[in-house]
Amino acid sequence: MVHLEVDKDDPVDLHEQVAGEIRRAIADGEANPGDRLPPAKDLAAVLGVNANTVLRALRTLRDEGLLEFRRGRGISVAASPERGEVVRRSRELVDYARRHGYRLDELIDIIRSVG
């Protein structure tokens, strides 16, 4: 199990601290792609926080592309922090393009033309 800690006196929200600790564990090689994480309730018990706090952090990391949720298999590390950063920036690009009236297929064409 990866080593995680939160500081309840820190002004940073607990779910952000949990997400940051898991990101750090992935970056440091404590959790590698394919590794399964303990259930959220177990992580919450170890950290001394509510399970919903952990679930919120896990969903954030899933949305960043770092974690994968699989029914019946739990939560596993999906990618390296670098891939997670590419996913995050891709989401920003998609949001930016949509705000400026571009459809996803148009954005894909633009990316292909510059790639």
Structure characterization notes:
There is one protein chain. The chain is built from five helices and two strands. Helix 2 packs across helix 3. The protein is mainly alpha-helical and 115 residues long. It is 57% helix and 7% strand. It folds into two domains: 1-79, Arc Repressor Mutant, subunit A, CATH 1.10.10; 80-115. The protein has helices at 14-27, 40-47, 51-63, 81-99, 104-114, and strands at residues 67-70, 74-77. The protein has a two-stranded antiparallel sheet.
- Sheet-strand content, in percent, reads 5-15%
By helix and strand content, what is the structural category? mainly alpha
Strand adjacency order, main sheet? 1-2
| CATH homologous group name of the largest domain | Winged helix-like DNA-binding domain superfamily/Winged helix DNA-binding domain
Cα-atom radius of gyration: 16 Å
Q: Mind telling me the CATH class of the largest domain? A: Mainly Alpha
Q: Give a short account of the largest sheet.
A: 2 strands, antiparallel
Q: For the record, give the distance between the C-alpha atoms at the N and C termini, rounded to a whole number.
A: 40 Å
Order of helices and strands: HHHEEHH
Helix content: 55-70%
Mean pLDDT: 89
Large-scale geometry: elongated
What is the strand tally? 2
What would the CATH topology of the largest domain be? Arc Repressor Mutant, subunit A
Number of helices: 5
- Summed up, the domain count is 2
Ranges where pLDDT stays below 50 over 5 or more residues in a row are none
State the CATH architecture of the largest domain: Orthogonal Bundle
Domain HTH gntR-type: 12-80
Protein name: GntR family transcriptional regulator
Keywords: DNA-binding, Transcription, Transcription regulation
GO molecular function: DNA binding; DNA-binding transcription factor activity
